[in-house]
Amino acid sequence: MNAPVRRFEPQASLPDLDAILPELTRAFAATAALHDREASFPAENFRLLHEAGLLALTAPARLGGLEADLPTALKVVSAVARGEPATALVLVMQYLFHASVEGRSGWPEHLKKRVIDEAIEHGALINALRVEPDLGTPARGGLPATIARRTPEGWRISGRKIYSTGSTNLTWFVVWARSDDAEPLVGGWLVRADTPGVVIEETWDHLGLRASASHDVVFEDVLVPLDHALDPQPLGAPPPYPASFAAWSSVLTSAIYDAVARAARDWLVAFLIERKPANLGASLSTLPRFQEAVGEIDGLLLSNRVLLDTAARGEVGGVEASLVKHLVTENAITVVEKALKLTGNPGLTRANPLERHHRDVLCGRVHTPQADVVLTSAGRAAFASVAT
C-alpha cells in the first residue's frame, strides 16, 4: 500500500538532502532497467519526489516553494539521474520553469500561483513543448507551425509537437506557437493537459531515455483563456526568460549525463573487483591496465565535478556556460565508452546496466545548445575579444 503523500507547507524548510537523496537514488535504480525495457514512465519516482517535498524545490518562496539555489538543484538532479536519468530530465524541466517564473514578465500572477500550488499540493509537472516535425528544434530559428488563433472566447491552438518529454504525466504544457496576426507573435501558451482537443500519440521508441515518455502531442483546436498567452513577442525579440536561465539549463541538463557516467563507473569498478578469470587467479582490478583506465575515468569525472560546481556557483556565464554543458556531456560519453571497451561482452549484455548507461548518455548530445553552436560561438567570442 502506498504511503500517504505528505502535504507541504508554504515556505517550508529544505529537507535533509543528505538523508533523502541516497535513498531516492537506490529506489530509482532498482526499477530503472524495467522502465527502460518497457519504455514505461516512472510515475512512482515522482510520487516519491513529491513525498520528499522536492517537486517545488526551485519555485519562489513567496509562492510556497523552497527557492533553492543552483548548487542545491544540481545536487538533487545528480542524485536522481544516478538512479534513473529520464526521471531527472523531467525534473530538470520542472526546476527550470519554476526557477525562472519570477523573471517571466508575461506570466499573470494567478497562473504563477496556480502552477506552483498544484506542484506543491498534487505533484503537478510542467514542461515546454517546442520541437516540431518539420522545423526541428526552435533554437536554430524559424517560425513554429503551431498556430494560436485569437477568438472572442480565447485562444484556439492547433499543431503537433514531438519529443514532448514527460508528456503522459504532465499537468501543464507550455506550447511554443505563433499567433495568427499579420505580423505573428511567437511565444508560449499555457495549456492544461486535460483540455479537450489535446491528444497524446505514443510514438516514443528511442535508443536512450526510453522512460521519458517523449511522445507526440497533438493540439486540435484547443481552447485556452486569453491570459494563457504567456510571453508572445515579435520574432527575433530577446528571450522572455531571465539571463540566469541559460546557466541553469546548461548545468542541470549536463549533470544528468555526468550522473549516468558516474553510475557506469561504479558498476565498472565493482565488475573489475568481482571478475577473477581462472587463468589470472586474481581480480581484474589488480592489473595495471585496468587501474590506469579507471584512473583516466576518475580524472574525467573530476573535471566534470569542477566544471559543474564552478558553473553552479555563477563563476562562468554566457558562452562559457554553454561550453560547460558541451564538455561535461562529452566527458560523460567518453567515460561510458571507456567502460565498454574494458568489459567487452559483459558490458554489452542487457543483464548488466552498462549498455543502458551507454544508450542513455548518448542522448546528452541532443540537448540545446548542440556542439556546433557552442563551439562556433566560443570561437567567435575568442576572435571578438582580440579584435576589441
What keywords describe this structure?
AcylCo_DH-like_C, 48% helix, disordered N terminus, 388 residues, Butyryl-CoA Dehydrogenase, subunit A, domain 3, FAD, 8 strands, eight-stranded mixed β-sheet, Butyryl-Coa Dehydrogenase, subunit A, domain 1, 3 domains, single chain, alpha+beta, globular, Butyryl-CoA Dehydrogenase, subunit A, domain 2
Summarize the structure in short.
The protein has 388 residues and is of the alpha+beta class. The chain is 48% helix and 13% strand.
Question: How would you describe this structure to a colleague?
Answer:
Residues 132-222 form the Acyl-CoA oxidase/dehydrogenase middle domain. Residues 29-94 form the Acyl-CoA dehydrogenase/oxidase N-terminal domain. This is Acyl-CoA dehydrogenase. The protein has 388 residues and is an alpha+beta fold. It has three domains: 17-124, Acyl-CoA dehydrogenase/oxidase, N-terminal domain (Butyryl-Coa Dehydrogenase, subunit A, domain 1), CATH 1.10.540; 128-234, Beta Barrel (Butyryl-CoA Dehydrogenase, subunit A, domain 2), CATH 2.40.110.10; 244-382, Up-down Bundle (Butyryl-CoA Dehydrogenase, subunit A, domain 3). Helices cover 48% and strands 13% of the residues. It has eleven helices and eight strands. The chain has helices at 17-38, 43-51, 70-83, 85-100, 109-122, 244-274, 288-312, 319-343, 345-348, 354-361, 371-387, and strands spanning 126-129, 147-151, 154-164, 172-179, 185-192, 198-201, 215-224, 233-234. Strands 1, 2, 3, 4, 5, 6, 7 and 8 form an eight-stranded mixed sheet that branches. Helix 1 packs across helix 3 (70-83), helix 6 packs parallel to helix 8 and helix 7 (288-312) packs antiparallel against helix 8. The longest helix is centred in the last third of the chain and has 31 residues, at 244-274. The radius of gyration is 22 Å and the shape is globular.
